Amino acid sequence: METHDCVIAPPARALLPVAGTSMSFPVRRIYCIGRNYVAHVREMGGDETRDPPIFFQKPADSIVLDGAEIPYPPMTRNYHFELELVVAIKTGGRDIPVADALDHIYGYGIGLDMTRRDLQMDLGKSGLPWEAGKAFDNSCPCGPIHPVERVGHVLEGSIRLTVDGEARQDSDLGLMIWKVPEIVANLSKYFTLEPGDIILTGTPAGVGPVTPGNELVGSIDKLGTLRVRISS
Q1: Average pLDDT in the 6-34 region?
Q2: What is the rounded distance in angstroms from the CA atom of residue 84 to the CA atom of residue 126?
Q3: For the chain, give me the number of helices (H) and strands (E)?
Q4: Distance of CA 203 to CAs 33, 96, 176, Å?
Q5: For 13, how many CA atoms within 13 A lie in the half-sphere containing its CB?
Q6: CA atoms 156, 158, 200, 9: torsion sign
Q7: Does the pTM of the predicted model rise above 0.90?
Q8: Does the keyword Ion transport apply (predicted)?
Q9: pLDDT tens across 42-67, in order?
């Protein structure tokens, strides 16, 4: 549909820069996986068994880019960070076999699943959806996408987050309960994956609250850093 055929201006599409180029990766959907590191499952009071993955979504317009200043969100007194590896999909499909899953990946990046933890926990206890706790404005800071052809498949290596220079999360991607190929394969059983989808693959232990003025720096081996600051 042309712009002049719309009754209002079409919303801008979320774009992530592609590292080392002037190109962008257009984002269609943001999928997230919960409880994917044993130590994080423990700190959240969950069962350590290898249960089926928990999937949820964030809106594409919740993305904010590296270097951004993020306003402290309303309706929460317990605003948390969760550092995650981002997987960017180049070719879609349904029921993708685990053995073929890596062929569908364009590249990798660093993301933050920012969470209104008090709302998430209250909603979860009531058996209600998590959207108010997870899918709010500015809840998905993301760094550039690094193409597989440059960095290979990022399946292990350090994942680390500091708040004002103090280490808060420090783990290894190899400790994921569900590995990247398994995440892609399982997700494609529930949804038809399409080019432009990104997947946040879960966070290690150490999640915690932030307050206005805090600077968050996330790093993953081969992918550089993601830096954001919380404003009032």
Answers
A1: 96
A2: 27
A3: 5, 18
A4: 9, 24, 9
A5: 11
A6: negative
A7: yes
A8: no
A9: 665 566 567 788 899 999 999 999 99
Q: Amino acid identity, residue 2?
A: E
Q: Cα–Cα distance between 110 and 59 in angstroms, integer?
A: 17
Q: Quote the CA–CA distance of 231 and 56 in Å, as a whole number.
A: 26
User: Which residue is listed with tokens 């996408």?
Assistant: 145
In this structure, how many other beta carbons lie within 10 angstroms of the beta carbon of residue 164?
12
Q: Decide if 193 contacts 89 (C-beta within 8 A).
A: yes
Element (H, E) at 124: helix 117-125
Task: Name all domains of the chain by residue range, CATH numbers in brackets.
Answer: 10-231 (3.90.850.10)
Q: Nearest 5 degrees, angle CA 103-CA 172-CA 129?
A: 75
Rg (CA), the chain: 17
Antiparallel, parallel or unpaired: β 146-147 and 105-112: antiparallel
The bridge status of strand 158-163 relative to strand 215-220 is antiparallel
